[in-house]
Amino acid sequence: MVMACRVINKRRHVGLQQLSSFAETGRTFLGPLKSSKFIIDEECHESVLVSSTVRLLESLDLSSAVGQLLNEAVQAQNNTYRTGTSTLLFLVGAWSSAVEECLHLGVPISVIVSVMSEGLNFCSEEVVSLQIPVHNIFDCMDSTKTFPQLETFSVSLCPFLQVPSDTDLIEEEHGLKDVASQTLTISSLSGRPLKSSEFFKPQAKVEADKNTSRTLKNSLLADTCCRKSILIHSRHFNRTDNTERVSKPDGFQEHVTATLKTYRCNDLVELAVGLSHGDHSSMKLVEEAVQLQYQNACVQQGNCIKPFMFDISRICTCCLPGLPETSSCVCPGYITVVSVSNTPVIKELQSQPLRIVLIEGDLTENYRHLGFNKSVNIKTALTSMELQEDSSEELWANHVLQVLIQFNVNLVLVQGSVSECLIEKFINSKQLVIGSVNGSVMQAFAEAAGAVQVAYITQVNEDCVGNGVCVTFWRSSPLDVVDGNNRIAILLKTEGINLVTAVLTNPVTAQMQIKEDRFWTCAYRLYYALKEEKVFLGGGAVEFLCLSCLQILAEQSLKKENHACSGWLHNTSSWLASSLAIYRPTVLKFLANGWQKYLSTLLYNTAHYSSEFEASTYIQHHLQNATDSGSPSSYILNEYSKLNSRIFNSDISNKLEQIPRVYDVVTPKIEAWRRALDLVLLVLQTDSEIITGHGHTQMNSQELTGFLFL
C-alpha cells in the first residue's frame, strides 16, 4: 500500500520531505482521542482498519531507504516500550520540517546538529521538575480484596490546555504540593546566569538559597533521562541505557534555588486513571491483572514479606472476536482457544488432574533444533517419495502416542507448531495438545507443575512430566464462546501458577487487533511507571514546558554578543563559534516550533477547535502568560496545584472541583524524543555525506545515473 501523496521538491532535501510525508499520515493518532483510518490496497482493493502508528506503517510502502529507517525507529520504540510511537512519528515530521527551514535559510548542517541536540538535552533536563515520585503503591493494599473499579472520567489535558466541559468532574481532596518552588538556574554561554525554570528570579534569592541548592542538586539531576548529545548512525535506534549523561561545557552549571516539596502518587487507582489516557476499559483490565498478581504473590510469600514487583511477562491475552465487550475480563491461569473438535476431549479431562509435557520447539516429524546437523551419506532406495513421507510421519506419530501413554500424559503444550496428523490422533486418544504457546506461559507451567521443557518427545522421562494441571471450559456453556473460526475458549491452571490472562472481546472483528494493542499500551505504561517509580505530569505539560524554555532560551541567545560563544567553543574553530552565535537562536526557534505543532495538533484532535491555527493561538496565549510569570515550570505546577484546574476555561466554575490528573511515563517519552531527533539528524547528515563525500567528487555524470540520494 502506498503512502499519502505529497509533492516532493527535488530542489530541497528529499529525505526530510519524505519523513514529513510519512509523518503526516499519523497526525490523527496523537492524543487520547484517536481517529482510526482505513488503509486501502490499490492493487487488490482490500482495506484494513488501523488506529496506531505501528499498524499504519505495516500497511504503507516503506521500500525507500528513509521509509525503512523510520520503520526501524518506530519498531525499536514499540518493541521496547509499547508506547510513544505516535509522539515519535509526529516529532519526526515536525522536526524534519524545522530542519528543512533551517537549510532554506542557509544554516550550516553542523550548526543544526549541534544546536538541536543541545536544545533537546536542555529540554530533557528541564522536565525533571515535572516528575512525580511513585512510591509505596502496594503498602496499604489489602491482598484479600479486589480493587475498586476504575471510574470513567473525561479525558483531560494540561490544566491550562483543558477543553471546556460540564460533565465528568470529580471531587478530589488530595492537592498537589507546591512543587512550583523547585527551580533551576543555568549559566549561559557568556557565563552570566540564564535562569531556566525561574528565568528572572532575583539574584539575592539565589544567594539566599545557595546552601539548599547544593544539597538538592545531585538528587534532582540523578533522575534526568538525558544522554550524551551524540548522533549515532544506527538503523535500529534501540538504546535503552540511560546511564550516560550530557557533558556540559565549562561554566554551564545548574543550581536548585528553593526547597523541593514533592507530591507523591501512592495510590494505584489514581496512577492507573492518570496513565489510561482515556482508555479506561483497557486500563481497568490491567489494574485487575496487577491485583491478581499481587494476591498470588501474597499467597506464595506469606502476606507479601518481599516487595511486590509487577511482572508484565506473566500476562497474556486471549482475543475472542464476535463477543460483546462486556465479556472482557481477567482470569488467573492460561486461557486459550482450541478447535471445537476438542470438545469431547475437554469434557473427558476436566474432572481430573492432568500430567503435562512441555515441548520447546515444533512437535513435527521433521523438526530439528537450531544447530542440528543433518546426517550425511544417507541414500534412499524408494520409488515413491510421497509413500516414504506418509509412512515416516505415521510411524513418528504412533511413537509419540506411545511415549505419552507410557508416562500417562494427558496434556502437551508446544511452543511451536503441531503436526496435523498428530492432532487427529490426540483427539482419538482423548489427549489434548495445544500449539503456539508463549514462552512465558511455558515457563509459568514449568515452575508451578514441576515440568521440565524438552526439545523432542524422545527426551521425555518421568522427571520431565508435570502434575496437577486442570483444564475446563472458560464458560459453563462452551457454545457461548465459539468464535468465527469454530474455536472454543478453555482455561488451564494449576495451584500457585504465576500467570494471568486478559480475555479481550469485541463484536467487530476488525477492531480486535486495535483492542489488543491498546491493552498492551496501557499495561506497559503502568509497568514502566511502577518500575521507574516516577511519572511525568501529563496532558501536554511536559511539551509545554519544553516549548516555553526553548523560546526563552532563543530570545536570550539572540541578545548575546558573538564572542559570548567562546566559553562553549574553546576547542572549535572561530568559524563554527561565530556560526553558532548567529544561527543558534534561529535553530532553537524552529526546534520549539515542533513542540508548538505537537500541542496544536493535540488540542485540535480533541475536536473542540475548528482549526489547528485556533488551537495554536490558544497555546500562544498561555505561552505568553508562562513567560511573563518568570518561571514556566512554576506556572505549570501552580495550575496543577489549584483545586479548580479549569481556571483558564471561559466558563470558570465556582465549585472546587478538579478532573483527574494525567500522567505520562518518563523514559518512554524521553526515548521517543531522542529517537525522533536522531532519525531526522541521521537522514540530514547521511544525505550530506553522500553529496559532499570524497567518493562522490570522483564520479562522473555517467556513473551518477541510477543513484538515488536520500
TrEMBL record:
**Which domain of life, per UniProt?**
Eukaryota
Show the GO MF annotations: ATP binding
Biological process annotations from GO: chaperone-mediated protein complex assembly; photoreceptor cell maintenance
Q: What is any Pfam family matched here?
A: Cpn60_TCP1
Which positions, given as ranges, span the membrane?
A: none
Q: Which UniProt keywords apply?
A: Hydrolase
Q: Which reaction does it catalyse?
A: ATP + H2O = ADP + phosphate + H(+)
Q: What does this protein do?
A: Component of the chaperonin-containing T-complex (TRiC), a molecular chaperone complex that assists the folding of actin, tubulin and other proteins upon ATP hydrolysis. The TRiC complex mediates the folding of WRAP53/TCAB1, thereby regulating telomere maintenance. As part of the TRiC complex may play a role in the assembly of BBSome, a complex involved in ciliogenesis regulating transports vesicles to the cilia.
Indicate what this protein is called per its UniProt record. Bardet-Biedl syndrome 12
Q: Which organism is it from?
A: Piliocolobus tephrosceles (Ugandan red Colobus)
Tell me the organism's taxonomic lineage.
Eukaryota, Metazoa, Chordata, Craniata, Vertebrata
